[in-house]
């Protein structure tokens, strides 16, 4: 082998620089308002070696605008904190205020931060685009009397000068200035450019989209501008439709599902403004018990060959197992599911038609039927196994034969394990005199399992087992349970008096545990 | 709900098929104001290096054409070529493998950065005594694992230098770091991913390295003592699809799932698990429908999610090699669509028809089954 490269073998200085935790100069912190100091510190720590750019920005910002700079830092995604420079942030702040004084549109104070000040619009790179766009577009709208008039002028300009393209496979989203210089961008990139231009003109603006629109391939994306007390739609490449909220409804009747407005750090559903709509409420249960905090469900619309989930609804049930949303009129597929311990999904579907003004209610129980024929106890290699007991000797699930037994496999480090173990312990205390036994098998060493037992004051028998590298190596406990990794535990196996596994639960939630308790009570009768 | 999914995969699924080859002239035209920069760079390269730079330009996304500097292009090509002499086996790497999997300056959606020199400077002292490609691959991954850990991140991809700096990233950002590290040592490397798991939530991306003519997988920045050894060993055996990404379209690749300007997505599912073929015919009262999108989906994160989309040929058919198990196939428009559950069996062709005039619907309750782990 021959080395012909004679490059310095030194790490770049940036990699050797220190984070804020070890910084000697923390003077920027003192400049933060009391109410934001903690968030500012967290942002500086999160910025890694780039903390000094953020601190520098705060030091160099006018005192009256410091709160705004720190507010943005507190909201920033981590990656932005790594990439943001003082120069970029200062330009954004300075030009946001410059627009305010240059155009003097009557803008509610509450809209300034979210819809004018923020440097981010979608997932574009962090760049300094304000000065360029201000210099280019401020003269165009100098005579506009209202934000709406200025927005219409910008709309005309975009319509005449920018073309759309398909998104490429490689590479990030274009920044506004790159879309401007190339005069071409995806629908989303053009919407970002339009939003950026409006911001530099002091006009509150935000992106709006309908995901999976009708028969077109994918989303529709446009812009809203705030003028004279209301949000108006602006379609960057269809200037004639300015202000027309029915544009998509007319082109795609019954297919405008939801409309989602996004600012830099927030999302708001604005469906009601763009389509006739109804309200849907779902109540989800398992074994008759409400599924609280349940996320695995979706409302779907048919688009370009398939049912597509409306993920922007951020579906999750409340403490009563309920979820409600507004949907545009049209046809939907409601889908929900759970997995068995092997990962096979049990899916419940229901089609629904939403008509204008509807208030629909769905009640669905997601309890899966028995996943498969029961496995004989002694065919299950895990249940044949002898595990070293914490009390000395060995414990084996096969020793439970003749009783109703619950075998709990868990990782002592897993936060869910304690909840499930306490559940098993309460059942054990209640039913141990009626022929019920519990064996817990902790995946770890004796000390960690003992500490787990003591911390949770468990009274049932506990054993331990090593799982090589906590990975599903051949024949490891994890692999034998059919799990991808040890943190997919806890797993509960309920064994009947005849030694047959009658139920297996993987990472059970409260309703599933309650159902299991009922099953145990039934077996003990 | 929180669906922390890899953005690139969504993009890979969304990008439409488009003409593949772009000429140098067409690429330079797309570069706009940056074209003179690229022309100057080409003129400054040697006759050995110029074709490689032209290859990159012909396959560059528009974003890069408009932004990459001549200096970046030259440095990337020159440092990539210097690896040819770095290890004795590097000269044995075929030219096409070198072009698609060592030379490229980008992996996926990350911003363009000058990562080669930094990776070389930091990594080479550590691996210079490696005695084989396998040894090198494992050691490079170990080096990455010492510097980068998994942690969810923003939807846009951070560049490899940024990930090293912060010390963590999403799985795809770990892949970017690992592939850059491999390429900096002249080791051909590419991304692999499963669009959505069939038997678990979310999805995953990892790396493959070309070693003595065979692609081997690794958990990116998740070092293991052996190749083809990672925490997802078992899961991937139950995957519906495993795809690879190539910069440019490899001429000798038989399993291209999708290609477009400057890229190819390769269906490599059979490299990981037993596969069968699902063949779908779309018709209207028996008359084949061409040009119709057909979607293959799995249940993941509370919804049926697309793992592949193909367009019917003139006989109304599409075919897709897939892992064993149950899938939902669907086609049509909001007003006329049909969907069915299909079971893909290993080493067999499973045929299914979707008649849009007599639409099928998926049942209101159903299990989807996948081969149990052995």
**Oligomer class:** heterodimer
CATH topology annotation of the domain at 377-524 in chain A: Glutaredoxin
- Quick one: how many beta strands of chain A? 22
Biggest beta sheet attributes of chain A: 5 strands, antiparallel
User: In which range does the helix fraction of chain A lie?
Assistant: 25-40%
Rounded mean pLDDT of chain A is 87
Rounded radius of gyration of chain A (Å): 30 Å
CATH topology of the largest domain in chain B: C8orf32 fold
Helices and strands of chain B, in order, run as HHHHHHHHHEHEHEEEHEEEEEEEEEEEE
Shape of chain B: globular
Can you tag this structure with a few keywords?
heterodimer; A: 525 residues; C8orf32 fold; Immunoglobulin-like; Glutaredoxin; five-stranded antiparallel sheet; 23% strand; globular; B: alpha+beta; 2 domains; six-stranded antiparallel sheet; four-stranded mixed sheet; 12 helices; disordered N terminus
Give structural notes:
The complex is a heterodimer of chains A (about 525) and B (about 375). By secondary structure, chain A is of the alpha+beta class. Helices cover about 35% and strands about 25% of the residues of chain A. Chain B is about 30% helix and about 25% strand. Chain B is an alpha+beta fold and about 375 residues long. In chain B, a hairpin with a 2-residue loop joins strand 9 and strand 10. In chain B, the strands form 4 sheets. Chain B has a 6-stranded antiparallel sheet with strand order 5-4-3-6-8-7, sandwiched between helices. In chain B, strands 9, 10, 13 and 16 form a 4-stranded mixed sheet that branches. The chains are: A alpha+beta (about 525), B alpha+beta (about 375). At the A-B interface, helix 6, helix 11, strand 10, strand 11 and strand 13 of A face helix 1, helix 5, helix 8, helix 10 and helix 12 of B. Strand 14 of chain A pairs antiparallel with strand 17 of chain B, so a sheet runs across the interface.
């Amino acid at each position: 082998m021959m080395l012909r490269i004679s490059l310095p073998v030194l790490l770049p200085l940036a990699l050797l620089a220190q984070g804020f935790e070890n910084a000697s100069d923390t003077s920027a912190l003192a400049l933060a308002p009391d109410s934001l100091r903690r968030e500012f510190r967290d942002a500086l720590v999160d910025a890694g070696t780039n903390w000094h750019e953020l601190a520098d920005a705060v030091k160099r910002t006018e005192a009256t605008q410091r709160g705004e700079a720190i507010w943005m830092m507190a909201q920033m995604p981590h990656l932005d904190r790594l990439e943001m420079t003082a120069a970029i942030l200062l330009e954004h702040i300075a030009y946001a205020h410059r627009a305010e004084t240059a155009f003097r549109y009557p803008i509610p104070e509450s809209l300034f931060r979210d819809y004018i000040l923020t440097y981010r619009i979608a997932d574009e790179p962090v760049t300094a685009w304000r000065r360029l766009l201000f210099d280019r577009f401020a003269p165009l709208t100098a005579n506009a009397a209202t934000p709406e008039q200025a927005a219409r002028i910008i709309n005309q300009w975009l319509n005449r000068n920018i073309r759309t393209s398909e998104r490429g496979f490689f590479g990030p989203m274009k920044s506004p200035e790159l879309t401007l210089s190339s005069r071409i961008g995806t629908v989303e990139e053009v919407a970002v450019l339009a939003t950026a231009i409006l911001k530099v003109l002091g006009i509150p603006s935000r992106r709006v989209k309908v995901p999976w629109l009708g028969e077109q391939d994918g989303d529709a994306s446009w812009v809203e501008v705030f003028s004279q007390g209301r949000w108006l739609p602006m379609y960057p490449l269809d200037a004639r439709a300015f202000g027309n909220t029915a544009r998509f409804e007319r082109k795609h009747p019954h297919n405008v599902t939801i409309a989602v407005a996004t600012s830099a750090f927030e999302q708001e559903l604005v469906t009601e403004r763009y389509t006739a709509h109804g309200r849907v409420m779902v109540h989800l249960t398992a074994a008759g018990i409400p599924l609280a905090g349940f996320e695995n469900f979706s409302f779907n619309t048919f688009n370009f060959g398939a049912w597509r989930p409306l993920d922007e609804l951020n579906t999750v049930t409340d403490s009563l197992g309920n979820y409600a949303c507004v949907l545009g009129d049209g046809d939907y597929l409601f889908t929900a599911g759970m997995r068995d311990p092997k990962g096979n999904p049990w899916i419940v579907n229901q089609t629904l038609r939403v008509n204008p003004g509807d208030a629909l209610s769905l009640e669905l129980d997601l309890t899966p039927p028995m996943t498969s024929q029961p496995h004989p106890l002694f065919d299950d290699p895990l249940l044949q196994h002898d595990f070293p007991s914490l009390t000395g000797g060995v414990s084996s699930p096969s020793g439970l034969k003749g009783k109703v037994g619950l075998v709990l496999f868990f990782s002592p480090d897993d936060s869910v394990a304690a909840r499930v173990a306490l559940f098993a312990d309460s059942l054990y205390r209640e039913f141990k005199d009626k022929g019920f036994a519990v064996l817990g098998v902790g995946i770890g060493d004796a000390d960690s399992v003992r500490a787990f037992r003591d911390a949770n004051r468990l009274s049932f028998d506990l054993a331990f087992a090593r799982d090589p590298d906590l990975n599903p190596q051949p024949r490891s406990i994890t692999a034998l349970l059919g799990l991808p990794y040890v943190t997919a535990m806890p797993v509960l196996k309920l064994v009947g008096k005849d030694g047959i596994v009658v139920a297996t639960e993987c990472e059970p939630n409260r309703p599933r545990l309650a159902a299991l308790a009922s099953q145990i009570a039934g077996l003990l009768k | 709900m929180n669906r922390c999914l890899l953005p690139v995969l969504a993009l890979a699924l969304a990008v439409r098929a488009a003409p593949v080859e772009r000429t140098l002239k067409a690429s330079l035209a797309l570069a706009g104001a940056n074209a003179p920069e690229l022309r100057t760079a080409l003129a400054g390269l040697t006759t050995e290096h110029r074709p490689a730079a032209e290859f990159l330009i012909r396959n560059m996304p528009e974003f890069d054409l408009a932004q990459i500097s001549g200096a970046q292009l030259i440095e990337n090509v020159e440092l990539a070529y210097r690896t040819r002499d770095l290890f004795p086996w590097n000269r044995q790497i075929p030219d096409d493998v070198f072009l698609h999997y060592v030379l490229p300056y980008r992996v996926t959606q990350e911003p363009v950065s000058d990562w080669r020199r930094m990776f070389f400077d930091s990594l080479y002292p550590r691996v210079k005594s490696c005695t084989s490609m396998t040894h090198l691959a494992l050691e490079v991954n170990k080096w990455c694992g010492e510097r980068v850990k998994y942690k969810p991140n923003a939807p846009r991809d951070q560049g490899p230098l940024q990930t090293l700096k912060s010390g963590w990233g999403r799985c795809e950002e770990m892949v970017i770091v690992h592939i850059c590290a491999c390429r900096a040592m002249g080791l051909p490397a590419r991304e692999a991913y499963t669009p959505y798991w069939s038997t678990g939530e979310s999805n995953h991306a990892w790396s493959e390295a070309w070693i003595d003519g065979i692609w081997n997988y690794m958990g990116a920045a998740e070092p293991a003592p052996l190749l083809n050894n990672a925490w997802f060993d078992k899961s991937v055996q139950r995957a519906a699809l495993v795809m690879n990404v190539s910069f440019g379209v490899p001429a000798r690749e038989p399993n291209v799932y999708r290609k477009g300007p400057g890229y190819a997505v390769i269906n490599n599912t059979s490299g990981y698990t037993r596969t069968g073929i699902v063949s779908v015919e779309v018709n209207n009262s028996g008359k084949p429908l061409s040009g119709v999108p057909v979607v293959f989906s799995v249940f993941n994160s509370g919804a049926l999610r697309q793992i592949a989309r193909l367009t019917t040929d003139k006989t109304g058919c599409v075919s897709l090699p897939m892992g064993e198990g149950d899938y939902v196939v669907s086609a049509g428009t909001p007003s006329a669509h049909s969907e069915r559950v299909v079971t893909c069996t290993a080493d067999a062709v499973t045929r299914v028809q979707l008649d849009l005039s007599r639409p099928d619907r998926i049942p209101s309750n159903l299990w989807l089954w996948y081969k149990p782990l052995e």
